[in-house]
Amino acid sequence: MSIAKGLPEGFNPSAYDAIVVGAGYAGAVCARRLAEACGYKVAVLERRDHIAGNAYDYYDEAGILVHKYGPHIYHTYNERVNQYLSRFTDWVDYQHKVLANIHGTLMPVPFNHTSLKLAFGEEKGEHLYQKLVAAFGQDKKVPIMELRAKNDPELAEVADYVYENVFLHYTMKQWGKTPDQIDPAVMGRVPVFVGDDDRYFPQAPFQGMPKDGYTAMFDRMLNHDLISVFTGVDARDILQMGGTSVKVCGQPFGGEVIYTGALDELFGMDLGALPYRTVDMVFETLPVDQFQPVGTVNYTVSENFTRITEFKNMTGQVVPGKTTIMREYSRTYLPGMGETPYYVINEPQNIELYRRYLERVSGVLNFHVVGRLAEYRYYDMDGVVASALELSDEIIGNH
Ligand code: FAD
Ligand code: UDP
């Protein structure tokens, strides 16, 4: 692999069999697979000054490994994804735990057996727990909206408590809307857990942190003789979309183009901007060994930030006497201002707008869209890797 800043003088796209836009999971997985399976010469264009997309991590001034674009915890049920990524990293066992700060008491989220007893007291909490077990079964995940739909007055009491103290205010901060106003699948990501497992991703068989960090894993994935990475390059400056073809640097390009950025940006948002939420990540290094007991504490009833992450608690890094934490402030993304579009807003009119942009590229057979931005989907890392493996299977199959 080579990594260069900017495109070289006289960059010649026809020297490459594939051009990949974006060096996050979607781009890196596709680049590696096309280089390996097809022997393609691949140019990866990344507009940031680093690889790894939103999973990028680095050592801050205090020497602490931090995640620049928000806390990233690897977890998956997908064995193929796990096997693929495991080629490029060893894993450190890390089981993510989140506590909600509810009026000063820290309770596990997803809300579980322990949380019930903390919220309602030992005896009543146990009684309510047994009712949940009777209604849903042991070790079951129950979306809050499903729990709210139950008629039983005691279950309604639990549902009201959890809705009010875990979901309502946090969701207002995160999305600017109440849980009833947004896609139920979003709340479904953090169901009530009828059991004792106090991990954030209960039951996920593969969880962990890449041993040397995410950026190091990407470095290995992109480290291939046939892959050249160019950072600080905005592909919009050199890509032109036609009805059935794509031009690169003004020349028709016959190789594969894999695009992992936002589709509206590619067209100057001429049909309108796709809406997103963005997050202001505010880092602070404190002169203490440890700030909070777990990786992340969600502020579900107070504060104007959503959560605080303490990186050492996630990575296991030992740095005595100091620790770096990060607060997340969610807000509306302002298109065209150089901000990061973090979260898609899954509403029918937005999906329809996305579909209209997608239609414009669907006639260009060598142009492929993949990833959280390009597919306009609320994907976790494993979902993006799965999608990139599928797309590259297809391209490899047609090779
Ligand atoms: P990205 O990582 O966004 O990569 C796309 C790349 O393309 C970027 O580097 C971008 O700069 C580049 N690009 C875009 N347009 C252009 C252009 N015109 N020219 C050149 N380059 C361009 N997932 C989990 O599994 N666990 C978690 O704990 C987790 N936590 C998260 C926390 C936050 C706050 C956020 C926002 C996401 C989190 N995710 C998590 C999701 C995870 O970040 C994504 O699923 C994954 O990083 C998406 O990979 P991607 O390649 O699709 O996109
Ligand atoms: N959520 C909440 N309270 C919590 C945790 C999550 O209301 O303590 C809701 C909120 O709407 C959030 C969604 O559930 O956006 C999904 O949470 P998740 O932790 O999966 O979000 P991410 O890590 O992707 O930001």
UniProtKB/TrEMBL annotation:
Belongs to the UDP-galactopyranose/dTDP-fucopyranose mutase family. It is an enzyme of class 5 (isomerase). Pfam families: GLF, NAD_binding_8. The gene is glf. Its EC number is 5.4.99.9. Transmembrane segments: none annotated. It comes from Olsenella porci. This is UDP-galactopyranose mutase. Its cofactor is FAD. Residues 166-378 form the UDP-galactopyranose mutase C-terminal domain. It comes from the Bacteria. GO terms for cellular component: cytosol. GO terms for molecular function: flavin adenine dinucleotide binding; UDP-galactopyranose mutase activity. Keywords: FAD, Flavoprotein, Isomerase. InterPro entries: UDP-GALP_mutase, UDP-GalPyranose_mutase_C.
